Amino acid sequence: MAGIVADSAKSAKSLAQQVARQMAREPLEVLKEAGQQVAGTEELISQETAVPKETGILPEEKARIESQGARQLAALEEELKDIRIEKGRKELIQKEEERAQAIAQENQKNEALPAIPAKRSRRMFGFGQKAQAEKQKTRIEKPLPPSG
Questions:
Q1: Which segments in the chain show pLDDT lower than 50?
Q2: How far is CA 2 from the centre of its chain?
Q3: How does DSSP assign the chain, residue by residue?
Q4: What pTM was computed for the model?
């Protein structure tokens, strides 16, 4: 019985050494097989089946698809151009409206300020004006004395 236990210990030890050597030589091989062992399936999804093959497309059909794609691309570019133009127009209109509002506000401020009257005359409420007017009416020319 001791022989069987010793043989199993040797075989386990040799098996562990063999696995360690294999891991040192091929570290990624274990990862490739781990999926099969965990999932229990043996089917692999290869990269070839994941990528669709285009070998079945005829050249005429391929040309038609390319021309259709080019037309769609041109239509989208034209639509982008129209959107940019419309956006520029809207911005211009908005700037004009803001400018008009600023002018209207400035005009309101000017109207809201009280008008400053002109400087008052130093003459006293018309006193003397009547007398001066009468004096102008009755004014006579005085003869000048002979110079001599």
A1: 48, 50-51
A2: 81
A3: -HHHHHHHHHHHHHHHHHHHHHHHH-TTHHHHHHHHHHH-------HHHHSPP-TTS-HHHHHHHHHHHHHHHHHHHHHHHHHHHHHHHHHHHHHHHHHHHHHHHHHHHHHHSPPPPPPPPSS-TTTTHHHHHHHHHS--PPPPPPP-
A4: 0.35
Residue-level pLDDT at 5: 62
Which two three-digit tokens encode residue 58?
């005829």
What residues contact residue 30 under an 8 Å CB cut-off, 6+ apart?
23
* Confidence (pLDDT) at 30: 61
pLDDT of the residue at 41? 63
Q: Are 38 and 44 in contact (CB under 8 A)?
A: no
